[in-house]
Amino acid sequence: MSDKDTGKLERIKMHLADAKAREFYAIQRIDLLVISISGAGIYIVFETLKFMLQQRIALNPSTLEWGGVCFVLATLLNFASQWAGYYTNKHEACWAQFEHKRLGGACLNDKEAQEQKDHDTAAHLAGIWTRRFNLASTLAMLVGMVLLLVFNLTSFGAVVPACPHH
Predict the structure, then answer these.
(1) Is the pLDDT of residue 87 over 80?
(2) Taking the mean position of all CA atoms in its chain, how far away is CA 124?
(3) Which domains does the chain have, with CATH numbers?
(4) Less Cβ crowding at N or C end of the chain, within 10 Å?
């Protein structure tokens, strides 16, 4: 391999490492947004229900309640995503230990080779569930936001009296 190719390979490795770091940062931000927005949504739902009860406002709060359910579901799915991500990383680390040993020149016995394969399979499966939980969590949060908006536009818009003409 020429020096030019070696330099290019090193630049690609650095680019890959930077891209992976940015991807990880973006996922962390999305998780924080889902948790923050869902927590705020749950608070708004409870405060709105409390206000309606105190003011004896006779509105049908089912859209509001379903929005609250979606926010709670988003939080629970995000929590499940965190656990699936933990197992993904745990199995990746175990796989990498065997791979490090193998690349270091040691031969893996049949049991170790099977364990490495099992960790690879488990990491892949947990990674699939992590992505599914992340997507479902984000979608539940978005549905909760839409339901909260629909409730506010359809319920309290009708309570506000129209401005009299002069």
Answers:
(1) yes
(2) 17
(3) 3-154 (1.20.1460)
(4) C
